[in-house]
Design goal:
Elements (H helix, E strand, L loop, with lengths): L2 H30 L42 H5 L1 E3 L5 E3 L9 H14 L1 H4 L23 H4 L3 H10 L13 H18 L15 H7 L61 H4 L4
Antiparallel strand pairs: 1-2
Helix pairs in contact: 3-7, 6-7
Amino acid sequence: MTTERRNTKQKKMARRWIGFSAAAVLALLAAGCRQDMQNEPKFVPQRGTTFFADHRSVRPQVVGTVARGQLDEDTYFYTGTVVGPNGYREERDALPFPVTMTVLKRGEERYNIYCTPCHSRVGNGLGAIVQRGYITAANLNDDVHRAQPLSHYFYVMTHGYGAMPDYSAQIAPVDRWAIAAYIRALQLSQHATTTDVPSGTTVQGLKSVAEAKGLPASFAEPWGLPTTAVSALPPVASQGTPAMAPAYPAAPKIQVPHEAMPKGGAASMTTKSPAAAGTGN
């Protein structure tokens, strides 16, 4: 075999090995380009699946499990009610934690932010938006509201009442309790007398304080209901100090629905107060 033919044969063999090697490399690359990662069996939120029998990708929570920090074991702290002997939930005139000056100051701060637009700084129900045409807010200083238990205010802030919306999203539970404590302190301040002041303490009248601060004389006078306010109740002079905002009746009447009439009873029944009925709302 001549040298030329031998070189030609070696070149052919080299080309074959190169081709074989290239084919092997391409085969390996092709094997690595499969779509398993692209088409992997994953669950997309709110999308169905055939993996589970109910064809839902979102699985229900395991019964009895609670997320960390969401146990809410102290039901009175989070609801403002306790289960009474009759099985019904009842309000209590107590706070779930001790009252300190820090708590009262925090309650004052939160009250001034969220409550004063309707109830005013002194709680008489004549806030800024009431003076601009909004329905008159509750007078927290009248006899009815002073008789309410502390947890009542927490419950109302949590769930709302009448025209008042709930504030559970804006105010944390601990701050709702602080506001309730401050409301009670505010009620005491609006009905305080000289006998409530420690001996040796100088008591200044509201009129003298107004004069010392250069405020108009009307500042110390009873506050009348603005003409733009909306109220279905007339002013009651005995309710609220110094304010004379419309007060809720001390014993609101209860109208018994016709379908609730006892069989054999009269066609109409006279209304009666909660005290006479022995029940309350």
